[in-house]
Each structure stands twice: as structure tokens, then as C-alpha cells.
Amino acid sequence: MTQLPVDCLNEIFEHLKDDKHTLYSCVLVNRLWCEVSVRIFWRDIRDYSTSNFSTLIACLPNESKKILYDNGIIISALTSKFPTFNYASFCKILSISRVYYNKIEKLLNSKKNISRQKLRNKTNIVSQEILKMLMNQVTTFNGLDIFLRLNINFILYPGAKDCLKNLTKLRCRSDISTELFYQLSQICHNIRSFTLEYRETIPNEIADLISVQRNLKCFNMKPYPISAVNTLTNVIPSLMSKLPNTLIKFKLDGRYNRLSLLFITNFSNLQELKLSFELNECLGDFEKVQYTLFPQLQILKIEKACPKYEFLINFLEINGNNLKEIYLSDIGGNYGNNSLNSAITTFCPNLRKLSTRIKYNELETLKMIFNSCKDLASIKICCGGIFLSEKEALETFVEYSQNIYELILYHLFGLVHFELLPEELESFFKNWIDRKPLKSLSLIIVKRNAYVNSFDKNHENIEIINKYIKLGVIKKFKVVSLIL
């Protein structure tokens, strides 16, 4: 039997990376297939289970195992024979927090009850030995996550500089060791994607790290989840000045900071722009961006607060023709603005995905969107209250949409529930079947509160959904709860 070369197997199995069941079956074919498949399973340490870390401990060199024994750390994996493969060498994405506390602590705590401090000390020791092994065994790390303040500098371990020098993706918090940022700036010059979770301060070493990147493509800056930061008004623009014109994706969650957004005009190669602020006033400076041409911009996302709609309309007039996706939340600061929606129909004819808000008395605007944006494949429509009813949204969708395969319905207000009657839902699907050509539909329901009676709580509606899934009319159905 002719054996496919390893390169071909790698190419084939890459397409199975999200299909774990099929990929696992490849493990059972022969040793070569097993090794190629296993490399994918072990690539991202964020996906490791507790048993994965037990296997890593079995891979530790004898000197590391002795250190564990000498510190009273007794794990069955320490006495196991060396595994079939050197699994440590397969790791390409390293998460320091996952190595340190998430899984190893659980592994140690499952053996016997020990004090919290002793558990933490033992976890530190095991984690350090695993990190030493990874730095020594891994040829190249592609991704690195650092969301912990460390009392060690793993970059000083043997082999660390070599395996990190071609790092392409970094995710970190702003309050970790400044020395670590300095060391990274000396080693890593090829980072293409940088995600920064900021807290109260942003050290200069982060700006230095950004400034030495040769080909930074994606930059994502967001506040640490539990931190209501609003003191970085002067710091963030200074940091942004270090970002190169090579950026194609820029995402900024500025919370309550009132920032000058003028720096965005420097990123002329942007393909994706995402802004998220809590207050409309924070985006007042969008006035300085409204007339800037971004010739390659394809995705525009503005979450929560929104600039004045006249600024956005001017922006769309200049950049709308190339846009493929638009996501708008608090349109015009008034839960919807017909002028802005009308501008979308005029200036954005090539849209494929749209998320917007249309009031109950602006049904004609939705019809205009469907008639003007003929390539539209996915639309997210807000329903209930001051917006369209579910019945109006479905009827307009089935009659006027052209190439759409995905419909997302959601309620802006958490206590409002879906009022769609089963007979209205049945009528919608019957009309959908009559469309030529017939396309299978993905229907997604978003509710803002998991405890509110909603679409999925109506037994008759779910029966209708299941009926049309079996008929092949519905390709995907999903109810998503967003608990605020």
C-alpha cells in the first residue's frame, strides 16, 4: 500500500482540526498517521486536559523529576515510562496561566488534601519544570498568552530565546512584569497579532515592544474584564503612535475614556475597524475620522456607544462601497436612526453581513436594504418594543431578501420576550419553501436574559423548527443567551 508523504498528511489533517472525532479516528490507522494527528491535538496548551498535563510530567527529564521528588511532590506520572512521543515538542501555543494554575493545581489537589499555600508552592515547582522543558524542547512557539504576574522569568530558561524569536501572536495583560516586556522586545520582532488587556497603567516597555515589530497586522486593546478603567485618556493615544501602518485589523475597547481618535487616520491599510465605548461622548472625536479614506476597509464594527450619525454617514459615503460587513449598536444614541440606515442602502451596496436597528415605523428602510444590498448573506435584526415585531421582520425577510442564508433575531431589552406565534412561524417557513432557488436557512435567536420566557420556551415553536430541520429547510438553529 502506497503511503502518503508527511507533508500531504499534514495538509489533509489541518482541515480536520475542528473535527476532533474524525481526527481521533486517524490516530488509530498507523504510527505515522498517529504522530501527524497527535501533533494537532497537542498544539494548543489551552486545550489540554488534566490528563494531558499528567502526560507532560511523564515527559520531564530525570533531573526535573528528581526536583519534584525532593520537594515531596508524588505523582504517578513521575514513575511512568517515557511516553510514546515527546509530546512537549508538539506544543506551539503556550498559555502561562494554563500551565501555572488552571490544570496543574487541579492535578495536584486531586491527590490529597493539602493547605492552600503548600498547594500553591507545589504548583509553582511543577509549573517551572514544565516551562523549562517546553523552552528546551519546542522549536518555535507561534502563540503566547501571559495573564499572570510571575515571580520567575521563563525567558531566561535555556532555549527560550530561540523558541520565542519567531513568535507571531501575543496576548497579555499590561500589569505583568515590565522586565518581561523588555526581554520580549529584545527577542520578538515578528509579532503579527497583539492583544493587550489594560489596567490602570500601561508601562513604556509595552510601547517599546510594539515599536520593534516589523510586520504587526492585528492590534486589539481592551480593559481587563473586572476593571472599569477610565484614566487612560492621555496614555492610549501615545501608545497608539507606536503602531505601524502595516495594521490591517484594529480593535479598541476604550470603556469610559474620552480619547482623541485622530491616530486611526494613520492606519491607511485597515481592513477591519472595531470601536467599543460606553458613552457616546467618548466618540465625539470621530469627527476627525469621518472624511478619512480607508481603501481596503471591509469590516466596520461599532459596539455600545456610537458616534453622531452625521459623522458615520460621511464615513460611509467615503468608505461604504468596499465594506462587506457592518455591525452597529447604539445608532445615533437613540436606539436607531433612519438616516443612517438609509445611508447604508445608498453607500454600501456590496455588504454581505449587517447588524443594525430598525424601528417599527421604518419598515420601508428594511425593504430598501434588501433591494439595495443584493449580496447580503446575513442580517441581524432587533425586534420588539420600539423596533420591528418578529412577524414584520420575518415577513419582510422572506419577501424581499435575495441571497441571504442567515437570519439573527434579538431583543435589545432583557425583560422583553419573543411574541412570535406558532402559526406565524409556520407561515414564514411555508413561504420560504416557495422561494426559487430554495436555500437552507440558518436561524439564530438571541435573548438578553436566559431566564426570560422566549422563543425556545414555546413548545409549539420548537416542534415547527424540528419539522423544518428534518425537511432540510433549516440548516442551523440556535438560541443564544446573553446575560448582562
From TrEMBL:
This is F-box domain-containing protein. Coiled coil: none annotated. Residues 2-45 form the F-box domain. Gene3D superfamilies: Ribonuclease Inhibitor. It comes from Rhizophagus clarus. It comes from the Eukaryota.
